[in-house]
Amino acid sequence: MRRISFQILGMVMVLCSLVGILVGFSDVKSSPLSGSAHEAPAAAAQAERDLRLLLKLGREHVDSDVRFTVKLQGESQAVSRDQAMASAEQVAQALGLPAVTAGKVHGNEVFRSEGTLEGLPVQMDWALTHLGGSYVRVMLTAEGEAQGERMIGMQQRVLDELAHAGVEAAMNAAVQGYSARQEGAAETIGRLEGDLGRTLTMRLVEDYEDGKTVSRSYEAPALGTFVKSGEQPIHMQLAVHEDSMKKSSRITIGFPVITVEY
């Protein structure tokens, strides 16, 4: 496994502003997404397996069209502003995205490009940090199974372009949609655990419940990417939120964690 370390204070602030979550994990680890000729194909195959499994789980457990989100994120070495912008433009051009624009997010300068690839929305943020490095995130979204299948192939192309620009990226993905059953959050997540347990060897690591929301995190070594909470690896997170308006529960499954609102 290749380690991607995040410098806690400055980097977490950028993560929060760009990803929209408070990251409580100190490490992100994954199968190598770039590296030797032997490492890269194995890592690409693992990533594809994980994403296909995630899409399958969405298809099996979500009644409405599943929303599929993949975030590819990592750090680049300390560079000047001009070098960072040139690298961002290089990736955007290689992917066929619009020209990069510069702006500020919570005091950090961010080079952004938004567009579509094969009809799917893509957003790239290349942020300069106060510590002199860069944090890079590319987010791809898809609605429904057909778009999800198309995105699985697309994410490897993005990883390759990021690697060419010197960014070693880790993958985080999630599927989300509503349950077909009218049942409480605890009952829904218990049913999900039973079904997923027949597919994955998994062990509960963390459990959170607040009113109509239940979230649980698991160790599942068959999956290729994980974060560390203390010394404990987390490969998968499940969350269920009871929606009183829709009278149904919204299900979110994240590999390794959920970085979208649930």
What does this structure look like?
InterPro entries: DUF1779. This is DUF541 domain-containing protein. It comes from Paenibacillus lactis. It holds the Pfam family DUF1779. This protein is of the alpha+beta class. It contains five helices and 14 strands. It has helices at 8-19, 39-61, 81-95, 144-164, 185-197; strands at 2-5, 27-30, 67-76, 101-105, 108-117, 120-128, 134-143, 168-178, 203-210, 213-219, 225-229, 232-234, 236-243, 248-255. The strands form two sheets. The chain has a ten-stranded antiparallel β-sheet, with helices on both faces. Strands 1-2-11-12 form a four-stranded antiparallel β-sheet, with no helix packed on it. Helix 2 runs antiparallel to helix 4 (144-164). The radius of gyration is 18 Å and the shape is globular. Residues 1-28 and 31-38 have low confidence and may be disordered.
